[in-house]
Amino acid sequence: MKKLYIGSMKRFSGKNIFTLGLALDLKEKGYQIGYIKPVGKSPINHEGETVDADALFFAETLCLKEAVTTLSPFVFTFDTIHSALSGRMKGPGEEILSAIKSIKGKDVLLIAGTTDIFEGSIFGINGISIVKNTDSRALVVESWKDEDTINGILGAREIFAEDLLGVVINEVREELVDFMTKNVVPYLKSKGIDVFGIIPTDPLLRAVSVATLTGILGGKVLCAEDRLDEMVEHFSIGAMEVNNAHKFYHMSLTTT
User: Fold this and answer.
1) Phi-psi bin for 239: left (phi > 0), alpha (psi -120 to 50), beta?
2) Which own/partner pairs from 25-30 qualify as long-range (CB within 8 Å, at least 24 positions apart)?
């Protein structure tokens, strides 16, 4: 069984949606796919147990047979962080590694990173130690910002060394794709880093439907109920008096 840790050097790289796409593609091609989120940060209650929301979603989407508590062996909560800081908590490292090693009978096991490869260090385990202790390879997904992204990728190579399988560069503006292909990819290749893909920016991947926003906010739809499936790509969250809000949004509308 091949084990692939999918992580990033910075948050919001798009690794969750990438992991989902990879899993579905491999499953469609006939591979037996496993999934685990060793360190979760989105706690929810599932059948009386605290599990990670991502792990539950993947378990249901991929029709995985393992218990969700196996796929989500440890979840950040206020209590766990407080226990770690106070020294009262025994590190969950062994439990997490045991959960990873307990998943068998798969062609590929996808090990999902959290915010970045360092997340979990406060508890004595992170993406670096997971790769080292589970005979896994690391795939780094990074969203393109500027040369800092290259610095991060080079840092990943230094950290993971031969365990770095390669990288995927996400959210590349369309006008930069040619530059990336002709300049950045060859440069990284010269440093021993394979680039498996350059994914152009797609605003819809970060958008949410009006219906979803309504449900999350517990809001009330005042008009156009026939358009709840339309996607919201930009929104602002803030607090201000009604008069000031009216001026602000009126100004925004006249300048766009």
Assistant:
1) beta
2) 26/107, 26/108, 27/62
pLDDT of residue 256: 53
What the block records as the tokens of 200 is 């152009």
DSSP symbol at 77: -
- Amino acid identity of residue 90, one-letter, is K
> What distance in Å separates the CA atoms of residue 189 and residue 143, rounded to the nearest whole number?
18
Phi, psi of 140 (to 5 degrees): -100, 125
Nearest to 9 by CA among 131, 183, 128: 128
230 — phi, psi (to 5°)? -70, 150
For residue 64, CA distances in Å to 4, 28, 34, 35, 60 come to 17, 14, 7, 8, 7
Residues 17 and 29: their CA atoms lie apart, in Å, by 18
Bridge partner residues of 50 (DSSP): 45
d(C-alpha 210, C-alpha 134), whole Å: 42
For the stretch 97-147, pLDDT in tens is 999 999 999 999 999 998 999 999 999 999 999 999 999 999 999 999 989
What burial class does residue 216 get, using C-beta atoms within 10 Å of its C-beta: 0-12 exposed, 13-18 middle, 19+ buried?
exposed
* Direct distance between the N- and C-terminal alpha carbons of the chain, in angstroms, rounded to an integer: 52
